[in-house]
Design brief:
The complex is a heterodimer. Chain A is mainly α. Chain A has helices spanning 8-35, 50-56, 59-71, 74-90, 96-108, 111-121, 127-134, 151-176, 180-188, 193-204, 206-222, 225-231, 245-255, 259-288. The longest helix of chain B has 27 residues, at 16-42.
Chain lengths: 289, 451
């Protein structure tokens, strides 16, 4: 093959593509196959769409989906807070280095670690309520992890705290890469911090914000297991108040011996994640155009 | 200096005779070593996957000693994580590479593996006398065979704190035996400024244990519990959700500890041991340590009676056990090891390492010196006990009804009737999701009801 052959780059990629196809492709094929079977052990009889029918007709599954959708409410809050914090850090306010470290810290720590600590803090007789009582703020003393009405909001708070750190990291790295001459010119023209942020910085960050929104959406859909597992007592509790799709899959596979059902939900989750990723590509292409 | 120059003069001057002698010696050594290696290779090797150190500290030390003392096979133990005890075994069995010996929880937690063909019938490979003396319990039987050996028992008492009973003016030597008696005791405790009843339900196990003691009160046989899941009995009938009505009654009267919903099971029990809670659900393996901590001021009782079933008021004893994989290449040797664990000296070693009682009847219980533990063993272990009926629940029912109902009653204002509705719906869902298991369950229920 000649050096300038158009096939040459594909040849280089071929081994890795083959490996990925084997590792992920095969698993995906088996996953789809399982979703149409009543699996006992590692195989079972073909039952068509029955697993999908059962899952979609089950109130618990619909409740899990609804909880995931509720978690989407956190995304705009995360984006706004992360954006403001990144812009403040970019301005290098006094003590910005230590603030940056504090803001990044939650993202460095593993989710189970911070979730376990949060769980201790937010117990009914825990330090948070003790402090609130001491400050005569008894109306804020809630059963943060024990109340079915409050537990999902506590999970949201934990997600907000940790995922904001990722947003700050992404936004700040984008800000660092901007051409400073434009910002300096605006400053010389007398533009204040708010005007610089709104008219110069944020418009140039549009791509990274869109990216972060899509990544956050995928997180809320398929990467909150560790949060709810710890806060919800390992079961999406109290009751089913923090049950989410991932935990539903875990329970179906590990605790209720229904691998076919777990596969059916996984396939649906995969398809929704694919749609979100596709949305990201469309946004990127539109921006490039 | 060259390599040649560094060689020793003797070696350099090795004669033919010396060379032949050395060669013969080396050959003999090789032959001996080879034979020894072959002998070692012929010693069977068994894998044993186990669990229990989490609930019974010292079990690992005991097991290591027992394995070292067993000379028929080399056994490699592996301590399993709680979340994967069943799934790890079933996956390995399905893949044709299971351990030879597997730790087995009671009832459905091993019976599904029996139905999938992953376990060998112990009654076919073990000495019948030893197997019977291991006290495996009724939930280890199916199709006329025994599939699991009893290893250590778990009496399930309700703790009451005697000091708190004294402070509330209650008789600490006569805990309440009826539901009305319980309500009166709770009222007295509450009046004395003591949180009366509860523990921690955040991780869900308290809700399961409550069912263990309370659902059984309206059942006539253990098989009735299975009949509730297969649809022959109905949770919507008042008799079969009365236990949840009673829990709601305790909630409405303000008798449950206020942090119950955010505490996990064991910290909840600690409240009772530490003198902050009057009555809580517990487990016998904790008693030796808890009795020591409180100088014997922890008492044990059964859940006061409200039900009309034949099982009401009887002490509950669960049983942990061991079994042999159907895929084991050496089931006979695995069986010898299980028999070996039931030898009197091994039972004594178990007690010495764990401070807890092994299941087998051959254990000399005169060594129990703590009066609290002795009392528990006499009334629960040797008493007219019943098995833990939550071990009959399909996993789906356990996860989606047994635990959520208890938590929702305590934390979300659910009524007993609503809990019954939820349980009936989830039981129906289980039947829809697992049509292939319903008939097997029905057969199991018939065997259990027949005794």
């Amino acid at each position: 093959m000649r050096r300038n052959s158009p096939l040459l780059p594909y040849l280089f990629v071929l081994p890795l593509a083959g490996l990925l196809t084997f590792v992920f492709g095969l698993s995906l094929v088996r996953l789809v196959e399982f979703s149409f079977k009543q699996v006992r052990g590692i195989d079972g009889p073909w039952i068509g769409l029955r697993n999908y029918e059962l899952v979609l007709g089950q109130p618990l599954f619909r409740e899990a989906v609804w909880h995931n959708i509720q978690l989407f409410l956190v995304i705009p809050v995360i984006v706004v807070i992360a954006l403001v914090l990144a812009l403040l850090l970019y301005e290098r306010l006094p003590g910005w280095r230590i603030h940056r470290t504090i803001l990044f810290l939650p993202y460095v720590l593993a989710i189970p670690i911070i979730a376990v600590v949060m769980k201790q803090l937010f117990q009914f007789s825990g330090p948070v309520n003790t402090v609130l009582s001491a400050l005569s703020l008894d109306f804020l003393v809630l059963d943060w992890i024990g109340s079915a009405d409050v537990a999902l909001w506590t999970v949201m708070g934990l997600i907000l705290w940790r995922e904001t750190a990722l947003g700050v990291i992404l936004f700040l790295s984008r800000l660092m890469a901007l051409d400073e001459t434009l910002i300096e010119a605006a400053r010389l023209d007398g533009a204040g911090w708010r005007h610089r942020a709104w008219y110069i910085l944020i418009p140039q960050m549009r791509g990274v914000i869109e990216f972060f929104v899509v990544i956050s959406a995928i997180t809320m859909l398929s990467a909150v297991f560790a949060y709810v597992y710890v806060i919800g007592g390992g079961r999406g509790g109290p009751g089913t108040a923090t049950m989410v799709i991932e935990l539903y899959i875990f329970n179906a596979l590990v605790r209720t011996s229904l691998p076919g059902v777990a596969a059916a939900v996984s396939v649906m989750l995969f398809l929704v994640a694919l749609i979100l990723i596709r949305a990201l590509f469309v946004l990127r292409r539109r921006e490039e155009d | 200096m060259t390599t040649q120059a560094r060689r020793s003069p003797d070696a350099a001057g090795l004669g033919r005779r010396r060379f032949l002698q050395a060669g013969a010696g080396f050959g003999a050594l090789t032959l001996t070593g080879g034979l020894a290696g072959r002998a070692l290779a012929q010693t069977p090797t068994l894998d044993m996957w186990w669990w229990g150190e989490q609930e019974l500290p010292g079990l690992q030390a005991y097991l290591d000693k027992a394995i070292a003392a067993f000379d028929l096979a080399q056994i490699t133990p592996m301590l399993q994580d709680t979340a994967v005890v069943i799934s790890q075994f079933q996956t390995a069995a399905a893949a044709g590479n299971p351990p030879d010996i597997q730790y087995l929880w009671n009832g459905i937690y091993h019976m599904e593996s029996v139905w999938l063909g992953y376990l060998a019938a112990l009654s076919d490979v073990m000495d019948p006398g030893i197997l019977a003396a291991s006290n495996h319990g009724p939930l280890s039987r199916f199709d006329g065979k025994v599939w699991r050996m009893g290893w250590y028992p778990l009496p399930m008492p309700w703790y009451f704190n005697k000091d708190l009973f004294d402070r509330a003016g209650l008789n600490a030597d006569a805990p309440p035996a009826t539901w009305d008696g319980l309500l009166a005791a709770c009222e007295a405790l509450k009046t004395a400024g003591i949180e009366p009843f509860g523990g921690g339900v955040q991780d869900g196990y308290w809700a399961e244990w409550y069912l263990t003691h309370a659902l059984s009160q309206n059942l006539d046989t253990v098989g009735d519990a299975v009949n509730l899941f297969i649809g022959d009995l109905d949770f919507r009938e008042p008799r079969y959700h009365q236990h949840w009505v009673k829990l709601a009654e305790l909630r409405d009267a303000g008798f449950l500890n206020k942090d119950m919903a955010s505490l996990e099971l064991y910290p909840g029990i600690d409240l009772c041991v530490n003198g902050q809670l009057g009555i809580c659900s517990s487990i016998g393996t904790r008693l030796p340590a808890d009795a020591k901590t409180t100088n014997g001021r922890i008492g044990c009782m059964t859940l006061p009676v409200f039900g009309q079933g034949k099982l009401a008021g009887r002490p509950v004893v669960d049983m942990q056990g061991l079994g042999i994989s159907a895929g084991s290449e050496a089931p006979d040797i695995a069986a010898r090891f299980l028999e070996f664990l039931n030898a009197p000296e091994q039972l004594a070693s178990f007690w010495e390492a764990t401070g807890w009682i092994p299941a087998a009847s051959g254990f000399d219980d005169s060594v129990i010196s703590d009066p609290s533990v002795k009392d528990l063993w006499t009334r629960w272990g040797k008493g007219n006990n019943i098995t833990n009926i939550t071990n009959l629940m399909p996993g789906q029912f356990y996860e989606q009804a047994a635990i959520p109902t208890g938590q929702n009653i305590i934390t979300a204002g659910m009524s007993g009737e609503e809990a019954g509705e939820l349980a009936a719906r989830v039981a129906q869902e289980w039947r829809d999701f697992n049509p292939d298991l319903v008939e097997t369950y029905r057969k199991w229920a018939a065997e259990l009801s027949a005794g």
